[in-house]
Automatic annotation (TrEMBL):
Source species taxonomy: Bacteria, Pseudomonadati, Bacteroidota, Bacteroidia, Bacteroidales
Single GO term (MF): peroxiredoxin activity
Extent of the signal sequence: 1-19
Gene3D superfamilies cross-referenced by the UniProt entry: AhpD-like, Jelly Rolls
Annotated keywords: Signal
Sequence ranges assigned to domain Cupin type-2 in this UniProt record: 176-240
Protein name stated in the entry: Carboxymuconolactone decarboxylase family protein
Length: 272
């Protein structure tokens, strides 16, 4: 049985049809079409074409979780597990989650099986591990927390940013962290009276630019005053994580107006 599972280690492709994900698999026919055509048909058309595609009953992420648990519990830690770990990553299971999943499995399926699975998972999530290590190192550089992914404003950013509210009394203050290369779109803080924003560099290196003016580097301790009505953007340098405190200045009829992203060409020219 373990050998048969090797035949399903080829790519699964998904596409959306009427808001339902359909899984297309060809590994069976590619590997066993001539030798075992019925097995190939069952593998491609039934297991993947029907069972995996029943996403209205159980999503791909959950199916990946169930499959990984089943394989590890049986002690199957060959290429078939690698394939399903890769699929799990594509289906949304994060590095932190897979570490917790395998740890949990270890208590029920056996510690050696968990060790073997971890050796494979580390390779699948290696890029995520590097990013997590860099994030953890950056957190040690500053006293303020990095916070959570800035999902509420993600559409106005190029790259990943994080938001940690620091205070909401008297003046709203937040710590905003940018991964290397991340920056927000051009925008204006609008107000009929008062308003605007103050930025104070906390850690790393970043950029601030007002429309029609050269960009200014931001380092820890750099203070940037942004009057209301000024079109601008700010973000990280391409080779550095960056964080700043953002102070929202009170005013009347305040709002933000967002514009186009900072183009790659504009951003690359900052280094010239």
């Amino acid at each position: 049985m373990k050998k048969f599972l090797l035949f399903v280690v080829f790519s699964i492709f998904t596409f959306h049809v009427m808001a339902q994900e359909k899984v297309v698999q060809t590994a069976g026919r590619d590997q066993l079409g001539q030798f075992a055509p019925k097995f190939a048909e069952l593998n491609d058309d039934v297991l993947f074409g029907e069972v995996w595609s029943r996403t209205e009953k159980l999503g791909l992420r959950d199916r990946s979780l169930v499959t990984i648990t089943s394989l590890i519990s049986q002690g199957i830690t060959d290429n078939s597990l690698v394939f399903h770990l890769q699929s799990a990553k594509k289906n949304g299971i994060t590095r932190t989650e897979i570490a917790e999943i395998i740890t949990h499995i270890g208590f029920y399926a056996g510690w050696p099986k968990a060790w073997a699975a971890f050796n494979l998972a580390k390779g699948v999530w290696v890029e995520d591990t590097t990013a997590e290590d860099a994030k953890a190192a950056f957190q040690r550089e500053m006293i303020f927390p990095i916070g959570e992914p800035n999902t509420a404003y993600a559409e106005y950013f190029v790259g990943q940013s994080y938001l940690a509210p620091i205070s909401c009394e008297q003046v709203n203050v937040a710590n905003v962290t940018f991964e290397p290369g991340c920056r927000n779109n051009w925008h204006i803080h609008k107000a009929t009276r008062g308003g605007g924003q103050v930025l104070i560099g906390v850690a790393g290196r970043g950029w601030y630019q007002e429309e029609g003016k050269p960009a200014v580097e931001i380092h820890p301790g750099t203070v940037i005053h942004i009057p209301a009505g000024v079109k601008h953007w700010h973000g990280a340098a391409s080779d550095s994580w960056f964080a700043h405190l953002a102070f929202e200045i009170s005013g009347e009829n305040t709002s933000n107006e967002w514009f186009e992203p900072v183009s790659d060409e504009e951003y690359e020219n900052l280094r010239k």
